[in-house]
Design goal:
This protein is of the alpha/beta class. It has 19 helices and 17 strands. The strands form five sheets. It has a five-stranded parallel β-sheet, with helices on both faces. It has a five-stranded parallel β-sheet with strand order 8-15-9-10-11. Strands 12-13-14 form a three-stranded antiparallel β-sheet, with no helix packed on it. Helix 5 packs antiparallel against helix 6, helix 6 packs across helix 9 and helix 7 runs antiparallel to helix 9.
Length: 472
């Protein structure tokens, strides 16, 4: 795979970022691509490792050594075809996936994995530029109708697969545009939304019908879908946020991350924010509670809005700077990571619990915190306060929204509050109703949503036709 001695001769080289002082001035992507020749050199580093654990590290099971070899041999078009055989949207994952494949790379044992994510992104971007990515219109129709509820990555992947099979696919999205968290959660500086628009155009040409502003369970009765369609796939995501039940939670200036982030994404796209209170960080001391990706997105957005300071708090202890590879490899390691947004000037603090939110005249002014030990128990005498004009809660999501669609359909839930369905059939407890993505598995990565959407599409095709030619 690649050049047989490439990993010995060529050092790892990855994409770089524009300086923070430049990139915080706008909401555009700021990753500086490598040249095609540099990417070919990086692909040459893919060694003949015998067992490519990157296959297992990648949730969609990309054939990474194969397209690395094709890139090394300058067969970019075939690399593009190979990449799309397992991943419907590599331009999404090539930008926002944390790249568990690289953690699983054999060369990660020496902290120099192949730059798989960069190579993937370069392949697909070149594919669009060269015109290799075109609608795949089915030769004949099956006469079967499928409804998909939720236009995030799981729903989009399932819709595209089923449309290419020849089914009449209708995707219902409660927002005014498709994309789910790709569009309304992830900021444009990480992934510009023209990438989604381009895929939607391709899918429309393939036969997918998009219904926007269609809030199933709120505007349209959910049971109408099961009566009208031959199969229904629920891909509505995990949207019930984890709250912070402390004194002062009701104060003005305390918001969920997913009240804050979609507003800015809509502003960037010239889409109305709706009849809601504008949430802006300009001129404010911002505190983000939650140390994950959503918290990082809040940080980067706050800086671009002109925040005076941003502090990010995490209740878990600080992870180690470096993992013990003999214990963790090829699995995803727990170690200290700094996102591009955190590197723009955020203050990070670990092992911190919020005790109460302090306010004046009904608006937040500070938060009172206390440090916790390794058992997450408060450490006596460690209380402190942080000035705060805006508090953003980014502590994850607990399960899908139960009110409305799920209660109307009467689907069975698992102990975590997600729709109960296994990965063998993706069937819910209700006849003809399937589910995939975060609505089934809980809060997870975009790449897992794509995988589940593809696999659910295959099971729906098998259910409708008695056989299937769709890949998992």
């Amino acid at each position: 795979m690649g050049k047989i001695t490439g990993f010995l001769e060529i050092d790892r080289q990855d994409r770089k970022y524009l300086p923070a002082s430049d990139r915080v001035r706008n909401y555009k992507e700021f990753v500086i691509p490598l040249t095609d020749d540099a990417v070919r050199n990086q692909a040459a580093r893919c060694m003949d490792c015998g067992i490519p654990y990157c296959h297992n590290g990648c949730p969609v099971n990309n054939q990474i050594p194969d397209w690395n070899d094709l890139v090394y041999r300058a067969d970019w078009e075939e690399a593009c075809r190979n990449l799309h055989s397992t991943n419907n949207f590599p331009e999404f994952t090539g930008r926002i996936c944390p790249a568990p494949c690289e953690a699983s790379c054999t060369l990660n044992l020496t902290d120099a994995p192949v730059t798989i994510k960069t190579i993937e992104c370069t392949i697909v971007d070149r594919g669009w530029k060269e015109g290799w990515i075109v609608p795949q219109i089915p030769a004949q129709k099956t006469g079967k109708k499928v409804a998909i509820v939720g236009g995030g990555p799981a729903g989009l992947a399932a819709a595209q697969q089923l449309a290419r099979r020849g089914h009449d696919v209708h995707l219902f999205e409660k927002n005014q545009k498709a994309g789910g968290l790709l569009r309304y959660g992830i900021p444009d500086f990480k992934m510009e939304k023209t990438l989604i628009d381009r895929r939607v155009e391709q899918m429309e040409a393939e036969g997918v019908t998009f219904h926007y502003g269609a809030h199933i369970g709120a505007g349209k009765d959910a049971k109408e879908l099961t009566a009208e369609f031959d199969a229904v796939i629920l891909t509505g995501g995990s949207e019930k946020p984890r709250d912070l039940p402390v004194e002062g939670r009701e104060l003005s200036g305390v918001h969920f991350a997913m009240e804050f982030l979609p507003q800015q994404n809509r502003r960037v796209s010239d889409e109305p924010i709706g009849q809601v209170e504008p949430i802006l960080a300009g001129g404010k001391h911002v505190v983000v509670i939650g140390g994950g990706d959503t918290g990082s997105d809040c940080i980067g957005t706050s800086f671009r809005q002109g925040a005076v300071s941003v502090t990010q708090l995490e209740i878990m202890p600080a992870p180690p700077e470096k993992e013990n590879k003999l214990l963790t490899w090829p699995d995803w390691p727990l170690k200290m990571r700094t996102s591009s947004s955190q590197a723009e000037g955020a203050t990070r603090d670990f092992a911190v619990m919020t005790r109460r939110i302090i306010g004046k005249d009904g608006h937040v002014t500070a938060i009172e915190c206390i440090r916790v030990d390794e058992k997450m128990q408060p450490v006596e005498g460690s209380e402190f306060e942080i000035k705060a004009d805006l508090v953003l809660l980014a502590m994850g999501f607990v399960h899908p929204v139960h009110e409305g669609m799920l209660k109307e359909l009467g689907v069975e839930l698992d102990p975590r509050g997600n729709i109960a369905a296994d990965t063998a059939t993706y069937k819910s407890s209700v006849d003809k109703v399937f589910t995939a993505g975060d609505m089934r598995r809980g809060q997870s990565l975009v790449v897992w949503a794509i995988r589940e959407g593809r696999q659910a599409a295959r099971e729906v095709d098998l259910f409708l036709m008695g056989e299937t030619r769709l890949p998992r």
